[in-house]
Write a structure and sequence with these properties.
The chain is of the alpha+beta class. It contains 4 helices and 5 strands. The protein has a 5-stranded antiparallel beta sheet. The radius of gyration is 20 Å and the shape is globular. This is Retroviral polymerase SH3-like domain-containing protein.
Length: 139
C-alpha cells in the first residue's frame, strides 16, 4: 500500500516514512481479512471514525490566522499537501513545499480532485508544448 501511495502521489522518496504512517493509519481502520474484522474496533471496542480521512498528498489550503503583521491584501492561505493523521490530534499533517516543513493543522480545506486534474492538465500542456516545438523545428 505504501509503494502504491508513493507512485500515485509522486511524493519525494525522502518522505516515505510519512507514506508508511498514513498506510498503517488507514489499514488499522479498514476491514482485515486475516482477523475477520477492523483492527481498531477489535482493540478499542468502538468503530473508528473515518470521516476525516483525505486522499494522500492531496492539495490542502491552510488558513493563515489574522495577525497585525498580515495586511489586507496578503494571502490568507498557505498551499500544502496532506501527509497523514495521528491519534488524539484534530486535523492532519500537512507538508509545505515552500518552507520544506510539515506540521499538524486543523484549519484547512482539502481539494482532493484538484491534484489529479492539475497533473493531467500539466501533462497535456507539456505534450502540446513538445508538439509545438517539434513543429517549429520542421520549418
Amino acid at each position: 500500500m505504501t509503494k502504491a501511495m508513493m507512485e500515485q502521489s509522486g511524493l519525494p522518496r525522502s518522505l516515505w516514512p510519512e507514506a508508511m504512517r498514513n498506510a498503517v493509519y488507514i489499514k488499522n481502520r479498514s476491514n482485515n481479512k486475516g482477523t475477520q474484522g477492523v483492527p481498531y474496533e477489535m482493540f478499542f471496542g468502538a468503530k473508528p471514525d473515518v470521516h476525516h480521512i483525505r486522499k494522500f498528498w492531496a492539495l490542502a489550503y491552510v488558513h493563515i490566522p489574522v495577525t497585525p503583521s498580515r495586511r489586507k491584501h496578503n494571502s490568507n492561505a498557505k498551499l500544502g499537501y496532506v501527509l497523514g493523521y495521528t491519534e488524539n490530534v484534530v486535523g492532519c499533517k500537512v507538508f509545505f513545499p515552500a518552507e520544506h516543513t510539515a506540521k499538524f493543522v486543523s484549519d484547512l480545506r482539502v481539494a482532493e480532485e484538484v491534484v489529479s486534474t492539475w497533473i493531467k492538465i500539466m501533462d497535456i500542456m507539456v505534450e502540446d508544448l513538445q508538439l509545438v516545438n517539434s513543429f517549429r523545428m520542421k520549418w
